[in-house]
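To close the section, here is one more complete example, presented without commentary so you can practise reading it yourself. The ligand is zinc ion.
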Amino acid sequence: MTKPTVPALEGWFTLDAEKPHLIGTQCKSCGTYYFPKQSVFCKNPDCNGEAFDEVQLSRTGKVWSFTNACYQPPEPYVSADPFVPYTIIAVELEKEKMIVLGQAVEGVDVSQLKAGMGVELVLEKLFEDEQSVKLTWKWKPVA
Ligand SMILES: [Zn+2]
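Output:
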């Protein structure tokens, strides 16, 4: 029997296996993008916006920074349990120019990364339990 595949975090990304997108919000007043979603008040100090549109963010960007994550990340980030060290990449999204953190795909470590290289968003297994395989977004270097 195959286990169902479910998102580790509900509503954070689309489940399109080929071209997944992170789901963020955009302030209706000033256009600032947010990920994770912001929906109560705009953090832009010059904006009084309280209305947001849900948007699919760019699924490509450039490596801004990266590191080995050797400790368990804080909530709401979900990680494998027991914790396995992984590579974390800070990516500047193509269109929004905002920085979004994510794990590197399996098999990619810091020695293969450099600032400015192109990456795209993919969905990969985070961990699995008795019931299902939990998916999360990861960054994959593009050739
Ligand atoms: Zn705003």
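Once you have examined the tokens, check your reading against these statements. The mean pLDDT is 92. The pocket of zinc ion is lined by residues 27, 29-30, 32, 42, 44, 47, 49 (CB under 6 Å).
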